[in-house]
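Work Package 4 report. The design task specified in the project plan requires that, given a folded chain encoded as structure tokens, an amino acid be chosen for each position. We show below one input record used in the internal validation round.
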């Protein structure tokens, strides 16, 4: 083939690259995939360590000159395929069957995976920056179940996972910075050591999720559900979690300085040895919460319920406890006892039988 012909073909393949935000919606004519017939022999959790494979037979016909950038793979059955390290940047994989497929280290930047089937798929260390996995203006409602998929160490910075349902998904060490997780369902997910810095996750559900050492700095997580989730040693500096449910959550040894937790429910939560300097907890239910040895200096607890809370050896200096419910709290050895007594003297509290347990 002449050099001019090759250049023309390459230019045509580059023209297929379109932003995922503008990918077309899935038409009603896309063929259904029989999930019971999925062949998973081509994928593995870790992936092969050999050379980058060429374009595999299942998609070769859709990739001009072996280039899958911007390729139309919508509705294609790629179950069990080995797509490791493949360049699928800007590809349309909407409605594709990727169950059990190996996409480790694949380039999926700006790709559309709306309603794709990812059950058991491996996307470890894949680059999904700007990709769309959730619902868009052209696809409303919750997307297909992505249970048991592994995206360990993957980059999803700026990706759209709106209303994705991926219970039990492995996102450990993944980069989810500035991601859109609005309305996503990630119960029992593994997010250990992941980054969700400045992520948007309004109304997301992450009950029982494993989120140790998570970076949520500056994230917007209003009205989320984190009941029984584990976020110990996590960074929530400046995070916004107002009107959220965090009952029995483990936030021990975490940084919650300047975090907004107003109107939240944290009953029986473990927030011991944590930094809540300047945190906003007004109108929140902190009944039986463990705040022992925590830094609550300058924290706002106005009208919060602290019934039977454990504040042993906590730092409450300059905290705002106006009209807080302080019934049966344990303040043995606290710093800032004068602050507490000041509110008591002004009658600026709701009841005050204190248990000074040692």
């Amino acid at each position: 083939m002449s050099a001019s012909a090759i250049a023309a073909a390459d230019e045509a393949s580059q023209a297929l690259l379109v932003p995922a935000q503008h990918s077309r919606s899935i038409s009603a004519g896309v063929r259904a995939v029989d999930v019971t017939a999925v062949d998973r022999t081509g994928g593995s959790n870790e992936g092969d360590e050999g050379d980058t494979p060429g374009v595999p037979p299942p998609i070769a016909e859709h990739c001009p000159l072996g280039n899958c950038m911007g390729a139309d793979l919508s509705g294609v059955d790629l179950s069990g395929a080995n797509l490791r390290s493949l360049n699928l940047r800007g590809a349309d994989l909407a409605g594709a069957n990727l169950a059990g497929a190996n996409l480790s280290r694949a380039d999926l930047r700006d790709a559309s995976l709306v309603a794709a089937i990812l059950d058991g798929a491996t996307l470890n260390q894949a680059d999904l920056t700007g990709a769309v996995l959730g619902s868009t203006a052209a696809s409303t409602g919750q997307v297909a179940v992505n249970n048991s998929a592994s995206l360990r160490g993957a980059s999803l910075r700026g990706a759209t996972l709106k209303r994705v349902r991926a219970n039990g998904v492995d996102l450990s060490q993944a980069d989810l910075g500035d991601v859109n997780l609005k309305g996503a369902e990630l119960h029992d997910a593994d997010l250990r050591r992941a980054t969700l810095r400045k992520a948007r996750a309004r109304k997301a559900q992450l009950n029982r999720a494993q989120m140790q050492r998570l970076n949520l700095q500056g994230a917007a997580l209003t009205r989320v559900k984190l009941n029984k989730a584990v976020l110990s040693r996590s960074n929530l500096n400046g995070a916004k979690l107002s009107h959220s449910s965090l009952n029995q959550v483990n936030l021990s040894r975490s940084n919650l300085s300047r975090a907004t937790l107003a109107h939240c429910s944290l009953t029986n939560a473990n927030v011991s040895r944590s930094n809540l300097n300047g945190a906003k907890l007004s109108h929140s239910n902190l009944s039986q919460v463990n705040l022992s040895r925590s830094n609550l200096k300058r924290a706002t607890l106005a009208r919060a319920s602290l019934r039977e809370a454990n504040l042993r050896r906590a730092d409450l200096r300059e905290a705002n406890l106006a009209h807080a419910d302080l019934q049966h709290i344990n303040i043995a050895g606290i710093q800032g006892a004068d602050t507490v007594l000041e509110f008591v003297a002004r009658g600026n509290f709701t009841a005050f039988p204190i248990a000074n347990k040692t």
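DSSP finds three helices and two strands in the chain. Validation will be extended to a larger panel in the next phase.
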